[in-house]
């Protein structure tokens, strides 16, 4: 919680009354970047074979993504695990095989082609799609806009109240308190992905709600 008092050089007169109001503004903004989390799961009784198969498939996926124009520094490993798998027979734990999981994150500003990116990865052997995370590359720009509009909203409320009382409102706030900042991302969850259709997978991220709320004290 932030307290902003840019008018601290102006003394608050003891004979003045004050009014406190809240101001809020929400902007609906289309996301301009996406982070896609997907990967490869391989299984084999020999961990080296499972690991080799996994590495080969991941390399194919990354190569295909680079050919789509995605920079290599926009592709990174988010999770890598080698885990033994067991079956339970008559209450006993019996080794079955090894599972190798390698998940990568792909960052892109080409929102229109998120579906094509996923489809390309799946075509190259990706068999697990965790989620697609839509967000803004510069959320502060929009939040500051919402903050400015929230202040105007608060001023209108205070002006309405003082006009109703038949008195004059001092336009400079005595104090401004920032109450909250809401900038949630849009996350589309997915699971193990198997695609059969030749049509691109459609992803509709919608819009992000950027909300600013402040409490303002005015004198009158």
From TrEMBL:
It comes from the Bacteria. Gene3D superfamilies: Protein of unknown function (DUF541), domain 1, Protein of unknown function (DUF541), domain 2. One of its GO terms (biological process) is DNA damage response. It holds the Pfam family SIMPL. This is DUF541 domain-containing protein.
């Amino acid at each position: 919680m932030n307290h902003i008092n840019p008018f601290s050089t102006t003394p608050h007169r003891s004979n003045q009354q004050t009014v406190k109001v809240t101001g809020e503004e929400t902007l609906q903004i289309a996301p301009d970047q996406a982070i896609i989390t997907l990967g490869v799961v391989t299984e084999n009784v020999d961990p080296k074979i499972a690991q080799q198969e996994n590495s080969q498939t991941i390399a194919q996926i990354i190569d295909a993504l680079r050919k789509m124009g995605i920079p290599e520094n926009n592709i990174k490993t988010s999770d890598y695990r080698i885990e033994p798998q067991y079956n339970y027979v008559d209450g006993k734990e019996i080794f079955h095989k090894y599972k190798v999981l390698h998940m990568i994150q792909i960052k892109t500003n080409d929102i229109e082609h998120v579906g094509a990116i996923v489809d390309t990865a799946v075509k190259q052997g990706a068999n697990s799609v965790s989620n697609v995370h839509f967000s803004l590359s510069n959320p502060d720009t929009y939040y500051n806009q919402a903050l400015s509009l929230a202040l105007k909203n608060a001023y209108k409320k205070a002006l309405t109240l003082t006009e109703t009382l038949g008195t004059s409102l001092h336009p400079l706030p005595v104090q401004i308190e920032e109450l909250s900042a809401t900038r949630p991302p849009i996350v589309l969850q997915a699971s193990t992905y198997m695609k059969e259709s030749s049509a691109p997978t459609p992803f509709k991220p919608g819009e992000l709600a950027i909300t600013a709320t402040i409490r303002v004290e005015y004198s009158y």
